[in-house]
Known about the structure:
2 copies of one chain form a homodimer. In chain A, strand 4, helix 7 and strand 5 form a beta-alpha-beta unit. In chain A, helix 1 runs parallel beside helix 9, helix 6 (149-160) packs parallel to helix 7 (180-189) and helix 6 packs across helix 9 (276-296). Chain A is an alpha/beta fold. Chain A has 10 helices and 10 strands. The first copy, chain A, has a 5-stranded parallel beta sheet. In chain A, strands 2-1-3 form a 3-stranded parallel beta sheet, with helices on both faces. The A-B interface holds A 112-113, 116-117, 129-142, 166-167, 175-177, 181, 185, 188, 191, 193-198, 200-202, 207 and B 112-113, 116-117, 129-142, 166-167, 175-177, 181, 185, 188, 191, 193-198, 200-202, 207. Strand 5 (193-197) of chain A pairs antiparallel with strand 5 (193-197) of chain B, so a sheet runs across the interface. Chains A, B: Residues 148-293 form the Tetrahydrofolate dehydrogenase/cyclohydrolase NAD(P)-binding domain. Chains A, B: Keywords: Hydrolase, Multifunctional enzyme, NADP, One-carbon metabolism, Oxidoreductase.
Amino acid sequence: xxxxxxxxxxxxGAATAKAIRQELREExxxxxxxxxxxxGLGVVLVGNRPDSASYxxxxxxxxxxxxxxxxxxxxxxxxxxxAIVAAVRRLNDDPDVHGILVQLPLPAHVDESIVLGxxxxxxxxxxxxxxxxxxxxLRGGPRxxxxxxxxxxxxxxxxxxNVTIAGxxxxxxxxxxxxxxPVAALLQACDATVTVCHSRTPNxxxxxxxxxxxxxxxxxxxxxxxxxxxxxxxxxxxxxNSVDDPTAKRGYRLVGDVDLNAKDVASYITPVPGGVxxxxxxxxxSNILNLTRHALGIVDVEDAAAGRGAS
Amino acid sequence: xxxxxxxxxxxxGAATAKAIRQELREExxxxxxxxxxxxGLGVVLVGNRPDSASYxxxxxxxxxxxxxxxxxxxxxxxxxxxAIVAAVRRLNDDPDVHGILVQLPLPAHVDESIVLGxxxxxxxxxxxxxxxxxxxxLRGGPRxxxxxxxxxxxxxxxxxxNVTIAGxxxxxxxxxxxxxxPVAALLQACDATVTVCHSRTPNxxxxxxxxxxxxxxxxxxxxxxxxxxxxxxxxxxxxxNSVDDPTAKRGYRLVGDVDLNAKDVASYITPVPGGVxxxxxxxxxSNILNLTRHALGIVDVEDAAAGRGAS
Lengths: 311, 311
């Protein structure tokens, strides 16, 4: 896992993800030759949200580019919980599907935890199950079969740029199940000292000012001011916020949770877009490959996951 | 859940645990009347470590005092992993056993994670399983059937003394599966901003000095100096360390991780012994009662756990 050389301070997620996709494409090609199997990703998409449809299109495009076949399960916005769970179960039972993702958010009348809970641990492509999350958090013992993709992408990006995590003070903004909580666990597993701030934290600025590594995942455009960043800190901006911009072709642009001027203070910073976003999809594909290997009994997935990242 | 009145700064775990045991005794008595069932605790003890034997004696004494019957599985120090796992499975299959604990540490030739992994999630008295830990960490979704006892005891003690957790900065020293990691998750679930320090943290003192609530769980006698404590902070000392003391009857005494003079700086502090220790056993019994209710299908254990503590 060689480091990319970067002349600038940018943690280039687009370029890094491209390199990972190429590695995965080669590994998948070898797998097909040796075992006659191509990894399969089951995708459950409910309703017509344009953002969800766009994410699924991006994931499908990357999957097909690297040799992962996609099995779609599309349901109408009005589909009830039982119908969605039934769709998950069909993918659970499909031997050609090695990983399943349910595109979130689900419609308001559906209990997401019940739908996600229906995915077999062995096919949990997003690593969101309680068992996988518990394994992520616990020291020792079996490793998770898959790690949540955005957090794994943050860590992988730092590691490929040889950013030291051990011994650093990492401050995570946000405690969501999808980003904040698992990224804190992964940073701690890499021997960072981790502080997690959230909506009930009175003095976020005071915590951010101490961060050697800042991971912002709260979904508030430019919430973190450049003046809060400790000089030389590493900034990972997970936020992808849409803000009005009459000068943009679509009338909006995407911005992160961190003010753009932070680039003048930080030693490394992820751009938005082109930072964590592409890494997320690459790590999803890495999870699918690991789950496929696990299903084939080829290799100890624990070791594979440990080798690829931050366990 | 009324607060105890304390004239001093002491968070009196012994008195609080006594009150909880009395509550549990009454609840168990009602359960026996209504359902003809008494909660059963299966205890696996391997070898002859005096400390382990002592812990098991204490747990057994409390269990019997409140109406929990104990089913012992004692194995020789030389017992191999298969024999220990088989003992766990027998307790899994015993309908009179509602919760199982394996007294740690196990002999060095045994993989603890495999033995603990053999306990059914529904009988995981210590709340150590990956699934229970994942549920503890995740926001929303099903709650854990049991919560790790020492962390749950810390939170329960703070809550019974009406110590405000929400919005406070909590610093946890230690990241063990048994204490540090789950107590950090519980504090965060109570809306504290949490920092976890560990063996790779370069400047523990600097973090401790910022703590509104300090939980010390590193097992180093008097490691935390009184001068590190922020005036008015709440100190929960989980350490139970044996130090030589020729003046003591047994030649040693038990001390915590925090210097005794911290009591002059903190607003509240747990004594060692008599602080977190008795709370741990009380929370174990609370877990057993919840697991018994779950087995009987009486009550939503999620709600019971949420009502009793920090979910």
